[in-house]
Each structure stands twice: as C-alpha cells, then as structure tokens.
Design goal:
N Utilization Substance Protein A, Chain:P, domain 4; 12 helices; elongated
Length: about 375
C-alpha cells in the first residue's frame, strides 16, 4: 500500500463521506488479523500505516524478562539492551517485524474486513442522517414491490412502505416519484431500516407545511388532524394574526394550495376547519360542511349533543358515519348528533311520560 492507496482512501472520503482516519483504523485492525493468521497467531503486534506515504509497518511487542520462557512474547534484558541500554525488566520493547511478503498476504486477508468496515461506516452515516429526520416528509422513487412491501429509493438508502402504511387502492408503479412520511428509523444488522407511511396524519401536516408559507412561518398553526387515509381528512387550523384567515391561507387562491395536497394524496377529500377555544364552536366547526343549529356540551364527560336541521342530518353524520367519526377524533369529544325533529319528538315523549307519572301520583293521592 503506497501513496496511491492513500489517494484512493481520500477519494472514498469525498464520494461516500467516510473519514480517511476511520478507514485507516479499520485497515490496521484487519492487517493485525492478517499478520497473526499468516505469521504467528500468538504474537502481540501492532500495525501502523503512514498517513502520507501509505507505508505499512508491523511492530512486535515483547516484555523484558530475566529468563525467557516464551520467545514470541518475551525478550531477555540482555537482548533488549541491544536496542536501547535504558530498558529494564518489566519494560515493553517494540521491534519492527514487517515480513518481506506481508503486503501481498495481508492485503488479501484484509480486503473483506476492510470492505465490511466501509459498509458499516456508510450504514452509520445513513442511520445518523435519517434518525434525525423522523416525522419529516421525504420524496423518493418507487424501486419495486416485494411481498406487498413497496421499496422506495431515497438516494443513499431505501425506505419500506409496509402494507399497513399504504393507502388502500393506491397504485405503486416502479419509477414513480412519491412523497412519504418517515415513521421510524431502526438500526439493524443489515443497516438502517427506514419505515415510511402514506397513511399517517403527519403526512397531511407536512404537505400543508410545504404548500402554505403561513404554516411554515408560524402565522397559522395546525391544531389537530383526523384522517381516514385514502378517503377523507379533517384538519383544524388557527391563526396567530387577526389579519390572516387560517382557513383561507390553507385553501389558497382559487383552492390552489389545498388542491396540491389533494393531488399528492390522489384525490383524498380534505375538510379545513377553524379551531376555537370554545368547545361548542369548535365542535360545530368540526362537522363541516354540515350546518349546526346548537351544541350542548358536558364538560365532565367530555361529550356533546349537536342539533342540526333535518335536511343536514345525513351530511353531518356522513357516509357510514365518517363525518361524525372524524369530527370526534379531531375535537377529542364524544359527539351525539340529532336532527331538530328528533329532538322535538324526544321532548314530546319525555313530556308525555312526565304527564303520565304526575296523573298516576294524583290518582294515588285521591285514593
């Protein structure tokens, strides 16, 4: 290994971002292993590589003793003084022991170990980079689908979109570019595993942050999100500036901003509502696009009775109860929805029951 080898390491450092010192240290460890395998496994040696020239030197370490019992690990005081008159019993003598043909044998032995160390260093770099990006959005290219897992090329590594994190009905074609939410980064023996999601509510949040400058700048806050991926999402927003309409900012001019998010989610419907510190107002807003007549809340049980016009009942509940279900998740309140006529009917029935009870009590008193 000469200066050309050092230059090669410097190229690897530039291209892969692995420090030359890390590679040299790995190579030294590998060369010690190669030396012991070919020239004496019991020897206590160290290997040094000149950082500039690439010259390799092997040094044997021997303990200075009066009576040598193991000439591989020990050296007599008399012989040690031939190297330096100052050596005493108990000192360690370092003697160069580089074999003539060591370069060829050691290089062959060390090659696989060095490559493994390079891979480990690359994996560590990738893990460090992506572990700091959990809960962020990333763009990648679909590589292939394997056992229902979608493998996505992220540049330095690939991410996995597992079946549970895929939007039902969404098609994943090789070569297509796709945005995904970084759910988790795991360190495994085969390198970092990047788990991605297309169903997580965080994906919607990050998409709005990309499309709406007011959210990115903190003028508009996303209070909560409830989502049934591939079908519908509700997002509650509020403004920190009275001159900025939070919903309008998210919708954008002629709906351009929300359309960009909807297009990325392949047509998933998105309801943007205004958050309000008053739970009655917030709950009413959460049932958009339905119009609400009134909301009665029970703070202790965190439940609410919502009354809507008769013609708005099906809209408020939504198909298969979806609108009401998403509103409950968005507000974190249990919501019971009734139409005006249902409420009146219940009032009539309750009043009738009260009259019956009162008449029964009066008859008992007369008897």
């Amino acid at each position: 290994m000469k200066a050309e080898f050092i230059r090669a390491l410097e190229e690897i450092e530039k291209e892969k971002g692995i420090a030359k010192e890390i590679l040299l240290e790995a190579i030294e460890v590998a060369l010690i292993s190669g030396y012991k395998k070919n020239f004496g496994s019991s020897q206590n040696v160290e290997v040094e590589i000149d950082n500039g020239t690439g010259e390799v030197h092997v040094y044997a370490k021997k303990l200075v003793v009066e009576d040598v019992e193991d000439d591989v690990l020990e050296i007599s005081l008399e012989e040690a003084k031939e190297y330096d008159l100052n050596y005493l019993v108990g000192d360690v003598v370092i003697i160069e022991a580089t074999p003539k043909n060591f370069g060829r044998i050691a290089a062959q032995t060390a090659k696989q170990v060095v490559m493994q160390k390079i891979k480990e260093a690359e994996r560590e770099i990738v893990f460090s980079e992506f572990s700091n990006r959990e809960s962020e959005i990333i763009t990648g290219q679909i590589q292939r689908v394997s056992r229902n897992n979608v493998l996505i090329d992220l540049g330095k590594t690939e991410g996995v979109l597992q079946p549970t994190e895929q939007i039902e009905g969404e098609m994943y074609k090789q070569g297509d570019r796709i945005k995904a939410y970084i759910l988790e980064v795991k360190k495994t023996t085969k390198g970092p595993q990047i788990l991605l999601s297309r169903t997580h509510p965080g994906l919607v949040k990050r998409l709005f942050e990309l499309e709406v400058p007011e959210i990115h700048d903190g003028v508009v806050d996303i209070f909560s999100i409830s989502r049934e991926a591939g079908s519908r999402t509700k997002i509650a927003v509020c403004s920190n500036d009275e001159n900025v309409d939070a919903v309008g900012a998210c919708v954008g001019f002629k709906g351009a901003r929300v359309k960009a998010v909807v297009d990325e989610l392949n047509g998933e419907k998105i309801d943007i509502v205004t958050w309000d510190k008053n739970p009655e107002v917030f709950i009413a807003n959460s049932l958009s696009p339905a119009k609400v007549v009134k909301v009665d809340v029970n703070d202790k049980e965190k439940s609410a009775l919502v009354v809507v016009p008769d013609y708005q009942l099906s809209l408020a509940i939504g198909k298969e109860g979806q609108n009401a279900r998403l509103a409950a998740k968005l507000t974190n309140w249990r919501i019971d929805i009734k139409s005006e006529s249902q409420l009146k009917q219940e009032d009539v029935e309750n009043n009738t029951e009260d009259d019956v009870e009162n008449n029964s009590e009066n008859n008992q008193e007369i008897e």
